[in-house]
Amino acid sequence: MTAALEIQGLNKSFGAIQVARDITLSLEEGARRALIGPNGAGKTTFVSLLSGVVRPDSGRVLLFGQDITSDSASVRTKKGLVRTFQVSNLFGKLSVLENVFLAVSERSNASFDLWTGAGKKRELIDKAEHLIEQLRLTDNIHDPVSQIAYGRQRLVEIALALALEPRVLLLDEPAAGIPHSETDVLLEAVYSLPTNIAILMIEHDMQVVRRFASEVTVLVGGAVLMTGTPKDVMVSEQVREVYLGHAGANRFSSETLHA
Amino acid sequence: MKPLPRSSILSRYRLRPAELLFWVLPILALFLFPKWLALGTLVLVFALFALSLDLLLGFAGIMSLGHAAFFGIGAYTAGILAIGGWNEAISGVLAAALLCGAGAGIIAPFLLRLTGLPLIMVTVGVASILFEVANKATWLTGGDDGLYGIRMRPLFGFFAWSISGETKFLYAFAWLLISFVIIRRMVSSPFGIALQGIRENTARMRLIGNSVIPHLSIAFIASAMFAGIAGAVWAQTGGFVGLGVLSLDTSIDALVMLVLGGLGSLYGALIGAPVYLIFKHFAQQWNPFYWMFLVGTMLVVVVRFTRGGILGVLKATSERVTGHKKS
């Protein structure tokens, strides 16, 4: 079976700093993979390399067997490789509905319709409203995104990603900045995605990782340290030493008790 | 689900009653000021030119100081056709629009990769090159002397271009109205919403799958075509084309009208053009040498003390009167 996303020997340096070292990994269809690593491990750069915002120095990225290494960010998105941002990156002056509408409209190739009133595109509006309801954002539907609570902006970010109907979804710390009460809304939305979508989620919160992921990849210094089940990774001596240091090891052992 | 609020950009397509006023006023002017139709025609032409710039700058966010290039190409195309013996007006305008669209299409892929100051400088550069080309190509453009004696056949073989100017006025009015309807539909469509997205956050638009340059190119080409239409109508109704149409002043005039009226609302262009041109007319009568002093003062006052130009003031006032608060 072809992997949903296959990354072969990806390298990237910014000057003397190598931020991706020969990264090779593959996501099967329906994968629920977490990507963890200490700050500065190159996780976000890795997502940027995959989404086409940053060009790799060498290596290949395959989406369902198709080489997309030289595709632009917009083409990759159109082909079903969608990312979200760690720091909300939205259309601040536009309302929640308008934000989601932009993505829905792009997804259904309606953005080249120069003649029909946008508000008359009932099916697009309905779809946007449905996603907004799913992420419990209906109260804010007509508020400018820059004026709603940060945690809710994070949910808009997810709504945008879902509107694009991804085949492979890269979530860059989706829960960062979301109050605990709303993490459930977020995870529910992620769980409710079709099971054949492959998801790679960067996440620090080990609770979330355990609930979400069936496999975990550990990235250290721009290189893959190991891949395994959440439990394997948590009990790994190597991970504890290299990645977590002393203080983290303590935090980790308390987590493993429940694993 | 709640209905779309009127303030949402998604409901731009909905017609507001106040809009009709803009289209009744020129017709009223036709009857009330029959002696001023030449100035009226000029106002209509420049309203269309400013409108085309609003599509470019106010909606697509493309900053250009070279928009006169397309106004000039349109004017020269119509002028050269008429002097060459092709005196049918409407086809002359369409030819001008097509030529401008083609020209814009050729430079779009290079130009639209730029943003900010480099973009402005390149638009100034392109317009300057065109100015010098027109200056040198005397055999075609008449150079410094310009093109004299542009005469058009009666419209539809029936409406003569009278001295009193009703035909010219209504002809310019019709082009403005048709262009306005098309531009209004464009900015209200999903395409127009995507333009707004590009202006707000280009990088993010790419990551929802919009490759940006095609959208900007379409806006740029359309804007060039409408500027070309304005130029062609200007040449046909004025009867003369000189190098001035390609000058930096012409680009700046349109920008000033737009900023005075209000950017990014379409109606700003329709307010800015009459206010600027009528004000300028009387300022020149007051003092032919120092009139720029008054125009400059007006610009400073409007930009300093209003948000969203004259249209912004009108909106704020009507909200205060009716008690409606739009978010």
Task: Please provide a written account of the structure.
The complex is a heterodimer of chains A (259) and B (327). With 259 residues, chain A is an alpha/beta fold. Chain A has 9 helices and 10 strands. Chain A has a single domain (28-258), classed as P-loop containing nucleotide triphosphate hydrolases (Rossmann fold, 3-Layer(aba) Sandwich). Helices cover 39% and strands 23% of the residues of chain A. Chain A has a 6-stranded mixed sheet with strand order 6-7-8-3-9-10, sandwiched between helices. The longest helix of chain A has 22 residues, at 237-258. Chain A is globular and about 55 Å long. Chain A starts with a strand and ends with a helix. Chain B has 327 residues and is mostly helical. Chain B is 71% helix and 0% strand. Chain B has helices spanning 17-32, 37-59, 68-83, 89-111, 116-136, 138-141, 166-188, 190-200, 202-206, 213-238, 248-261, 267-286, 291-305, 309-322. In chain B, helix 3 (68-83) packs across helix 10 (213-238), helix 7 crosses helix 8 (190-200) and helix 11 (248-261) packs parallel to helix 14 (309-322). Chain B is globular and about 60 Å long. The model of chain B has no long low-confidence stretch (mean pLDDT 93). Chain A binds chain B through residues 51, 53, 72-75, 77-78, 82-83, 89-95, 97-98, 101-103, 105-107, 110-121, 124-126, 129, 141-142, 144, 160, 163-164, and chain B through 1-2, 4-5, 8-14, 185-186, 188-194, 196-197, 200-201, 203-212, 214-215, 218, 327.
